[in-house]
Amino acid sequence: MKLSNGRIWPYAISASIIFIFGACVATIVVTSTLPVQESDTYMMSYHHADAQANELINAKIDFDKKYNIEYVTNTFTKEKCVIAYRVSDKESNPINDATIKVMLTRPSTHKNDQEINNPSVENGIYTFEAMALPEDGRWDIMAQVSVGELSRFYNVKTDTRGMDIVEY
Q1: Is there a contact between 81 and 130 (Cβ–Cβ < 8 Å)?
Q2: Cα-flanking dihedrals φ and ψ of residue 16, to 5°?
Q3: Which band of pLDDT confidence, cut at 50, 70 and 90, is reported for residue 20?
Q4: Contact call for residues 38 and 46 (beta carbons, < 8 A)
Q5: How far apart are CA 67 and CA 56, in angstroms?
Q6: 114 pairs with which residues across the strands?
Q7: What DSSP designation does 64 have?
Q8: Whose C-alpha in 82, 84, 117, 146 is 20 to 30 A from the C-alpha of 132?
Q9: Is the pTM of this model over 0.90?
């Protein structure tokens, strides 16, 4: 069978379609094996955060009208990690009855997540005791701060390799 006189085009088009279909299947197979972590900016799944976006934003605005929160950590290294927050009202009076829930996590994985509870409170400064971290590098410190009925999330990105690397 000779493929001259224009008979090669149907075979070339069929081969191209099969190749493209095979590349699509290969892409799906490869990407389905890669780990995907959900965003947890608000210490909840992104589906839940997306469904409550307006409530979360309004809660932050209401909290910020009455209270200030400040990240005041002095030591954040792999060997000694001390996390501290200052909570005060708008007149700079310390608030000692706030509830702070802290989650320490890596930006790209939940393998090393640590939930930290029971801070010591002194003059509006909530200090979570020193601990050792499993790895050097970037860490996300996510906190949910509640004073009475008001609540907000306060996220910090920092690095164990230098205290000057902090992002709010």
Answers
A1: yes
A2: -65, -40
A3: very high
A4: yes
A5: 16
A6: 104
A7: H
A8: 146
A9: no
